[in-house]
Specification:
By secondary structure, the protein is α/β, with parallel strands linked by helices. It has one domain: Collagenase (Catalytic Domain). Helices cover about 50% and strands about 15% of the residues. A four-stranded mixed β-sheet has the order 1-2-4-3, sandwiched between helices. α1 links the parallel β1 and β2. The longest helix has 17 residues.
């Protein structure tokens, strides 16, 4: 798994730790070995615009994850050669909102960021939490992965 990490904020990040974490979380979530995942740390205004455009929610959020290569889904009619790295998904994180929500929920910032990266990896795998049953399944999978990290 290849990870591209971009920091468009003034926050000091630990890129090696983040990349190591998402690679392990991705493997545990069952993401393809040849997947290319882009992670961008962005400010509250940028994530608000993305959230509004793609989820019709006009507010900033802590994390968004998008699976953007239809060739990696089971609905694909394309065959990708095994040696090709395939663009798989994009994860957006907002440190400003992460800080707020971590404090509200009683987490340390790094601990909460870790949870969000696992959460995003599961979204890239196709898990959702639109209803109680899905949310319960996703929470169980998050706990299972977090215990192994």
């Amino acid at each position: 798994m290849d990870i591209e990490l971009t920091n468009l904020t003034t926050e000091h990040l630990k890129p090696r730790a983040i990349i190591k974490l998402i690679k392990k979380a991705g493997r545990l979530a069952g993401l393809p070995r040849k997947a290319l995942i882009s992670i961008a740390f962005i400010d509250a205004e940028k994530i608000r615009v993305i959230n509004k455009n793609y989820r019709d929610q006009d507010e900033p959020t802590d994390v968004l994850a998008f699976l953007y290569n239809p060739a990696t889904t089971s609905h694909s009619k394309f065959i990708i050669p095994k040696f090709v790295r395939t663009a798989y998904g994009e994860i957006f994180l907002c440190p400003e909102i992460i800080k707020e929500k971590a404090k509200e929920r009683g987490f340390g910032e790094e601990e909460y960021q870790k949870l969000l990266l696992v959460h995003a990896a599961l979204h890239l795998k196709g898990l959702e939490h639109s209803n109680n049953e899905q949310a319960k399944k996703m929470a169980e999978k998050e706990r299972e992965i977090l215990e192994k990290l």
